[in-house]
Amino acid sequence: MGKLQVVVTGASGYVAGRILPVLRERYDLTLLDVKTANREGEEVEGIQVTDLLNRDRDTYRQYFKGADAVIHSGFTRASKPEDQYWAESDNVNMAHNVYQTSLEEDVRRVVVISSNHAADYYEQLIWSDEMEWVTPDMLPLSDNFYGWAKAAYELLGFAYAAGKIGKGKRLENVQLRIGGPRETDMSRAAATDLKRMHRGLGAYLSVRDQAQLTIKSIETEHIEDSNGVPFQIFYGVSGNTHNFWSIANARRVIGYEPEDNSQVKFAKEISEVLKKANESYPVE
Amino acid sequence: MPKPKVVLTGATGYMAGRMRSELQDRYELTMLDVKSTDPDGNAIPGIHEVDLLNRDRDQYREYFRGADAVIHSGFKGTVDSMHTDFWKEVDNVTMCFNVYQTCVEEHVRRLVMMSSNHAADYYERLIWSDRLTFATPEMIPLSDNFYGWGKISYEALGFVFATGQMNDGKKLENVQIRIGAPRESVADGITSSNLKSMHRNLGAYLSARDQVQLVVKSIETPKIEDENGIPFQIFYGISGNTHRFWTIENAGRIIGYEPEDDSAIKFADKINEVTGDAQKNYE
After folding, report:
1. pTM of the model
2. What is the ipTM of this complex?
3. Chain A 84-143, CB below 8 Å of chain B: which residues?
4. Through-space distance between the first and last CA atoms of chain B, rounded to whole angstroms
5. Based on the structure, what is the number of domains in chain A?
6. How many interface pairs between A and B have CB atoms less than 8 angstroms apart?
7. What would the pLDDT profile of B19-40 be if each residue is shown by its tens digit?
8. A96: DSSP letter
9. What is the count of structural domains for chain B?
10. For position B247, which CATH number holds?
11. Distance (Å) of CA A66 to CA A83, A107, A256
């Protein structure tokens, strides 16, 4: 059997860059972006330059033709603060163009790189001890335009999965709400702010867990919800003891088995912080 | 006490038309629209013609200045293209952003948004196939079409504005009203061969006076904060129908909505005809 054909948008970006070597090995990749260099200025091999914000889908349709799956990690950002809403509105439009082109070109599945910010309002409640846990089936609430756009394009994904837009043809899609995809959060941890440390550890997503989550989101045969709609929202975090977003559905639906746990991976750094906190622990 | 100053957008439209005269009695009303005639072609006096899709908010800012509340019922589109044109719905979301942002900048305290039950219309597929009995505004909003998606997006944008986070902490209080079936024709065409369709129509019914009450109370109730202190609410806009399948419990609790109409009584004659017919075949 030949390799699956997979399109990666935003291919020169940071999140895609973390798993590009793994994806290159596993799939026949088509890489798309508006630029060919990554944020360090290094050229990324094999990028086709195309602008997915263009409403004329014929300018990039060819890259989607024949693909088995699309990983959409492309996005745009505002050049000045007062334009933030318009840039986020463009991100929703870009996701639409990717969904619609995928539908038209018979791509079976789209994996969208979304963000925990789709429901980031709940963190205000969590870190003020009014709530403990967030699951993907809660109403997505955000207090900012960035998070709003994630919620808007996730739920647009549902509309495409439900099949009415495609006149019965369903576009299967998985929304990955990426947590903290970096190794550096512990460097800012301090005994004076243990909640912040908890946050960093709970949100952590390792490179190999990101790769596993993405690959299983592409390759798992059935991703239908309980009503038969091929749509899922998964939190993109490792198997952290400190998790405060649920990955139970990712484990159940696609068999996600994270290999990393920030509590073990950063045990030494954590123990230093906790020892320090222990020094000022109230004694009875 | 002087009348509150209220801006009504989409003022020549059908939804606005069902409450315009009551609002004019009660408020000092500023009416905005892109045209000055109603759907039947009648001229509506007092309309300021302005395009709220313009990203240059200085074009219409003056009408919002000094207002106590805004009722946004402006929208773009025709019934024909209602569920199929994504870019039109993007424009509708854009228009809402312009209204929200102008309200914040001009210190308008409260915004009442005409949304639609279509923000969560996917659940009706489950309801009418007996997999769900009731939908509530706390459920994740799911729609299978672009029209519903547009509602979802601008309701969620309303929450962002209610937190104040994007505007230096300045909160824009807002209420999203998911209008059901705002028409007297809900019992027309119902038959004993499709009782679920009758149930749907009767459950979704919203009378004109209940619409007025819901909008007026959404404007005038001093406190609309949710349990976490965010001044944001989503209410279903339906009468007190025995056949309802969307909850109006939160509207009763938060703004004291007490619907005067119930489609089961209002359309009793027609219902009796249909159920009597159905009874003949009852085993």
Report:
1. 0.95
2. 0.93
3. 84-86, 89, 92-93, 96, 100, 121, 124-125, 130, 137-143
4. 63
5. 1
6. 88
7. 999 999 999 999 999 999 999 9
8. H
9. 1
10. 3.40.50.720
11. 36, 7, 27
